[in-house]
Every structure is written in structure tokens, then in C-alpha cells.
Amino acid sequence: MGARLIIVSNRVAAPDPKGTPSAGGMAVAVKAALKNRRGLWFGWSGQVSEEPDPLPRVIDAKRVTYVLVDLSKNDVQEYYNGLANSVLWPILHYRGDMQEYSRADASGYLRVNRMFADKLSPLVAEEDVIWVHDYHLMLLGHELRARGHRNRIGFFLHTPCAPPDILQTLPLHEQIFGSLVHYDLVGFQTANDRDNFARYLVARGASPTRGGAYEFEGRQVKLGVFGVSIETKTYMRLARNAGRSAMVALVKESLSDNRLVLGVDRLDYTKGIPDRIKAFERFLEDCPEWRGKVTFLQITPKSRSDVKEYGEIESEVTGLIGRVNGRFGDAAWTPIRYVNRSYSRTVLAGFYRAADVALVTPLRDGMNLVAKEYLAAQDPENPGVLVLSEFAGAARELEQALIVNPHETDAVASAIKHALEMPLDERRDRHAPMLSHLQVNDITKWAEDYLSALADGRQTRRLLDSL
Ligand code: G6P
């Protein structure tokens, strides 16, 4: 048997009606990367069961075999809501001050990482290449090594990586962040993220090798930069045809002649939604000529609602939107439309294409695929304008966007005005190079670049041949 690709992630986009769909970028990207590729995708079924089945559930789809494990209520609380989303998520997004650490959650995280290794281990053959995704499963590489697996094992961090001073605020940082050296390759979204982690390793006593790897406690780990991307071609096609969607037509009609400003984010405190609403409010204050002529549609599916901070951000956002709508709206015009649901890819592509401006203004973001999807969805002859936070990984690649500091309300307000009033020539000049960049650097290239860096030459050929 040739080398197989084994993907491991907490959330799995399995073709299962019972599987929890994810609004998150990680599962979407991995799904796209696996498209037309043979492999095995291992992860959480999305189901909670008090007596998890000792054997994982197996779903054989066309080319991909999904192997899914259930979690207990306690696992979900301590590992997913607890250490992963109340501790690692804020720390990696530079918010060490927001972590809610507890020993119980830390041991739940270790327990679930071990359980994943126990259940995956019997499925691993010698030649397989294993690719682990995201902060939920940092320890998995170490756990697999402890079970004797000498395979090529890689890890990719979809979130940002904070500087060492912030990583060190995690009480068990040596055990959790330090264990990443058990992977052969650790991939990051941007050079900044990679450099932060390299500095963390060096501060712990690692030394750089000639080949660009780091040596630490007898292990060698390579660090690399692989900016995640989208299925650019597919997205362009979807957006061209999305006009046929009844929902898109309905929204366009409901706008009358109003211009459309769009925001699409999971409801998360890292996304800067309150700051963005305040900027839109400032724009309406400063530019009375635009009142009644522009609608801001903010699409915000809820996520991780069992984590306290997510409930708090929800009340803050709804309060702010109420204030702006009450202050500037009238019986015939609502300045901000706010919806807590997700839409299909096709409908979303239609919204992107219809939008004159996209506001992608996170306070910190690993990459942000909304920025890329928005650009791919535009009509190249008459493109809209992307307003992009300098703190999204995407800003390192999409330099022709209107780059803003999301904390600077006045600057974001004037960027909205600039975007709405930008002449066609300038819109085209900005859009064209970004679209070309995305046509070359799409999701397939991301997966190929990563796997070529991870696997040895022979394995790479086999893995890429299965495309
Ligand atoms: C977003 C983040 C990913 C993360 C995912 C988890 O996509 O960018 O880094 O893995 O959310 O989402 P979930 O819905 O599973 O908590």
C-alpha cells in the first residue's frame, strides 16, 4: 500500500447529516484541501455521548474515509470549551489576560489528546503521512511518538501565534506549546507567527540548525509559512452564477438603490465587531450625505455559545446595533441589518458579489478567508472594495486592500467613505493584482506546499499523485 494521507482535526466536515456543520475556517479549508484526494480524516463526530463507543464510527465516502469519535459531556466542557477555547484561543490571539485557566480543563485537554492518539494509533500504517490541524490537538504528535509511530507527522496552526511573552502566560506552556517539537513540521499562516514561535523555542533553549530547523531536547522540528487559502476558481464560478439564487435576488431587491456594506464573521470577540459598528456609526455621523443611502449587512453565525465570553460579546453587539439603528434609522431605512445565521456557500458568494464594500476588521486573525472569498466573488469589471484589518494574516498577502487599524474608529470610518466613493479605475487597479494572487495561491497550492515540505520525496509524489 502507498503512503496515505491522514488528516486529524477536532472538527470534521463529514458528509453526515448528524455531523455538526462548522462555520469555522479550519474545517472549510481542510475539506477543500482534501477534495479529490485519497485519505483518512479523523476527528470528533460532533456528538456528545456519556458512554462513548469504544470503536470510532467509520464513514466511507468516495475517496475519503472519515473516522469519528464521540466525546463525553465532560470532555467537551474541559477540552473544547475549557482549555481549547477559554485558554488557548485567547492566548494565541494575544489576549493572555482573557484566559480562564483551570487544572481540571488542562487535564481534560491532555486526556482527550491521549484518547485521540489511542484510537488513531491502530489505524496508522508505517508509510502514512499524518497532518494534524489546530490548537485543539497540539499534544497529539507527542502522544503518537510515545506509541512508537516514526511516521512523518506535521501540524498546522490556523490561528495566529502570539509572541513568547504571551505564550508563557499559559501555566502548562512547556508541556503544551513545547510539545510541538515532536512534529516534523509546524506550519504557520504568516512569517510573523512563525517568528514568534521560533523566538519562543529559542527562549526555551532550542538552537537553529543549518537547514532552517530547530533542535530541542534531541528533536528536530522545521517551522514553515503556508498561508491558507480558498478554492479560488470554484468560488469565482459560484459567484458568477449566484444571481440565480432566490435569496440573493430577494436581498438585492430589498435594498432598492442602497449601496451594500457587508460583514461576515463568526460571533467572536477576536473579530472586532463592536469596533466595526462604532466605525460605521462614526461614518454616519461624519457623512450625513450617505444616510439613507447605504445598508450595512452583518452576518454573524453564533459559535461556542457555552463559553462565557461569547455570551458577553453577543449582548455588546446587539446593544450597539440597537443604538445605531435607533439613532440614525427611520421608518423606511434600517442602517444595520444583523443576522445570526449562516448561509450556504452559493448564497454567501452572491452576497459578496452584490456588496460594494466588505468590512473585514478583526482585532487579530490567523488568515481570514472571508477577505479572500470576497475578492474572488467580485465582478473583475466592476469590483467592490475590501477594507481589511492590518491584524488579519490576509493583510500580509492582500496589500492593495484598504488596510486599517480596527482600533482607530476615525480611520475605519473614512475607509468606508473612501471605499464607497472609489472610482472604477482605482477599484479595478486594486482588485486585479489581488485576484491574480489568489488564482495562483489557492487552497490546492497550500496543501501541496505543506505536504511537499512535510513528506519525503517518494511519499510526496505518491500523495500528490492521488490528486
Ligand atoms: C475558526 C478558526 C480555526 C478553528 C475553528 C474552530 O475557523 O480559524 O482556527 O479551528 O474556528 O471552530 P469551531 O466551530 O470548531 O470551534
TrEMBL record:
CDD domains assigned to the protein according to its UniProt record, in alphabetical order: GT20_TPS
EC number in record: 2.4.1.15
Keywords, sorted A to Z: Glycosyltransferase, Transferase
GO biological process: trehalose biosynthetic process
EC main group: transferase
Pathway where it operates: Glycan biosynthesis; trehalose biosynthesis; Glycan metabolism; glucosylglycerol biosynthesis
MF-aspect GO terms: alpha,alpha-trehalose-phosphate synthase (UDP-forming) activity; glucosylglycerol-phosphate synthase activity
Reaction it catalyzes: D-glucose 6-phosphate + UDP-alpha-D-glucose = alpha,alpha-trehalose 6-phosphate + UDP + H(+); ADP-alpha-D-glucose + sn-glycerol 3-phosphate = 2-O-(alpha-D-glucopyranosyl)-sn-glycerol 3-phosphate + ADP + H(+)
Domain of life: Bacteria
Pfam families documented for this protein: Glyco_transf_20
Family: Belongs to the glycosyltransferase 20 family.
Function: Probably involved in the osmoprotection via the biosynthesis of trehalose. Catalyzes the transfer of glucose from UDP-alpha-D-glucose (UDP-Glc) to D-glucose 6-phosphate (Glc-6-P) to form trehalose-6-phosphate. Acts with retention of the anomeric configuration of the UDP-sugar donor. Involved in salt tolerance by producing GG-phosphate from ADP-glucose and glycerol-3-phosphate (G3P), an intermediate in the synthesis of the osmolyte glucosylglycerol (GG).
Subunit structure: Homotetramer.
Protein's UniProt name: Trehalose-6-phosphate synthase
Source organism: Roseiarcus fermentans
